[in-house]
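pasting for the record
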Amino acid sequence: MALKFNEKNHPYIDLGDGYRVCFYEERCPHGEEMESKARKAINEGTREEVLAAHDEFRKLIATDQAMCVPINDEWYLNVFLRASRFDPREAFDRLQSTSTAKIKNWEYFGQINDIRHVFDEELVWVLPERDDDGAVIIVVESGKKWNPAKVSLVHLNAAVTSIIGVLMLSEDAQLHGCKLIFDMEGLSMTQIVQFTPKSTGVMLHMLEKCTTIRVLGTHTVNNGMMYNMLFAIMKPLLTKVMRERTLIHGRNYGDLAKHISPRVLPKRYGGTSKAPAYEGRLLGDMMVHYNDWMQSKHDHGYNRKNGQAE
């Protein structure tokens, strides 16, 4: 089990037996039929229709004189259009929301180097296998495994957004999106007091309005009475869309299996995957490789000194 690099110099974690964790895919590995279904699901039409969406998106960007993005970079335009089901107006709103968030909440978009301890602590990790619909599965350990004295809530959330950010490299992830599993095993007041209305509101807003990969759903498992108290506080902050995407399963892994295939889930979540567990430091090493690339993408949008943060 080790970190290796492919012919494009992109890192991946080789788990052995054909399993690996990687963010970059040269092309969609799920087959043409699934790729076609994914493009239809996000309303990605013919080449002519895509170019027409690009033109409309560029015109909207041009109305915001403070916005600085590579408008002639088709890849960059596609990232926001795919995250917005190819609706140029929604893509523009997402671009503005993301750009504003980088100014108001810059701590969520900082150096990956500064949050690699989150991965070392094995609080955020990615399943080696994609779901049956092609979605990437990200697991967040928010219960007893999380020691706020070592890892702040901001850094925990920043680790999630950084993974989603790096995933935009993958056309596969752009098309199929991602799903989040929040494991609340052993949640106590030590963790609960970290969730202020402000911090919770910021993270919910970012998951809905500021991601460059579609978040198809959030799934909470191993929750008990303590989490139910927390969720009662959080629920009024959820928009209608987020409420529909937020599912709470407790220890009912059969219910979780209705939304994420047991084939890709580890045994601890009622799954049958044979993929071995891996050390968090390997994911940290892989993420750090993308630090400079992510910083270059964070430079797009509003200038931090002259932006639209008011």
